[in-house]
Amino acid sequence: MASNILSSPALTFELVARCSTTRARASNLTLPHGPVQLPMFMPVATQASLKGITPQQLEETGCRLCLNNTYHLGLRPGQEVLDAVGGAHKLQGWNHNILTDSGGQVGFQMVSLLKLANITEEGVRFLSPHDGSPMLLTPEHSISLQNTIGSDIIMQLDDVLVTTSPDKERMREAMERSVRWLDRCIAAHKNPDSQNLFCIIQGGLDLEMRRECAKEMLARDTPGIAIGGLSGGEAKADYCRVVATCTALLPDLKPRYVMGIGYPEDLVVSVALGADMFDCVWPTRTARFGNAVTKHGVLNIRNRQYANDFGPIEPGCGCTCCRTGDGGMGITRAFVNHNASKETVAAHLLTIHNVWYQLSLMREVRQSIIEDRFPAYIREFFAGLYASKTEYPDWAVEALRGVGVDLMSE
Ligand SMILES: [Zn+2]
């Protein structure tokens, strides 16, 4: 009994099932605001709300853990407002779990895009994108903001470099600094009994550096572990190698979060490689461009072909837009098409559908792992996405072969 459960003060991890072929796992994670089932996708609610949908609608998708950006919450409306209202859960009317990023992302984007920031041992110095005022985000400040926000999972401030950077020396500096910053985050963390601090493994595409970083991070014994710095334009094959290298080193009884991942194929392959948690703005962002994520790929409902299509966004979908009975709206493609270019309602409807799709995909993946038919599920998933096997992406075929699933065989 005890061998598949590990508890830390604010988190309990229970390994429920393991795929007998791949490295996939199904597990239950109990956080301060209730249990969540892994593997899972976490939608990103930027401004304390998922653009266009209410907390109630988010709840109806089955979401029990969403991501908030520390920059948007902690720096605006700011710590005073959050203190007065009693944290982000109260501010948003969201009684389920929240994960916050470190807030460093904004600074790092400015480093890479605009050269308007610099990173020193002290922290990340950048100009506020709102009013141009100089800001310094340190590990201590990041944790203080996240303590005020009261999120169930908080992330360490790390030194992130795009994985494609050719500067090995700088990559090593960033990796080693991330370890030192984790120590500062742990020391600054005021609520380890109610908030879980996750470390972030860095090291770019260098597998040896990733191993070294993982070893250092694991020695700090945080309740959960993230693999960071990916989805920055690296080749998918490289991405898979990094994830597989890291998961092989991680303990069984801790959650493994790969940051910034959200394309359905990436999710399914990453689960096979042993990852449990993912987040990405893509499903909600793409909804605002009229795109519906479905098991047959992404459909742009703005296309004329849908103007007189009175079917649901996705046949058989259980989301509140698509389903007809049981309080569902029975929305048609024609309706979304008609509204897509002028009304925000279309974006709201597609957001609900897309978030549901992502969560439902992970629920199906989980069920197939529990019933030990995940390899068959992967085959069905790819067969739904592509007209023929010749279209399957090489990186996915290769990565899955590495964990015992050959999509090309019968
Ligand atoms: Zn739907």
Detailed description of the structure:
The protein is an alpha/beta fold. It is 40% helix and 19% strand. The protein is built from 14 helices and 17 strands. The chain has helices at 55-60, 70-85, 88-92, 104-113, 139-149, 168-188, 207-219, 236-249, 264-272, 282-287, 333-340, 344-370, 374-385, 394-401; strands at residues 5-8, 11-18, 25-31, 34-38, 40-45, 65-68, 97-100, 117-119, 124-127, 134-137, 153-155, 196-201, 224-227, 256-258, 277-280, 291-294, 297-300. The chain has an eight-stranded parallel β-barrel, surrounded by six helices. A four-stranded antiparallel β-sheet has the order 1-2-3-4. Strands 8-9-10 form a three-stranded antiparallel β-sheet. α9 (264-272) runs antiparallel to α13 (374-385) and α12 (344-370) packs antiparallel against α13. The protein is globular, with a radius of gyration of 21 Å. The protein starts with a strand and ends in a 9-residue tail after the last helix. The model has no long low-confidence stretch (mean pLDDT 92). The structure holds zinc ion. Zinc ion (ZN) binds next to α12.
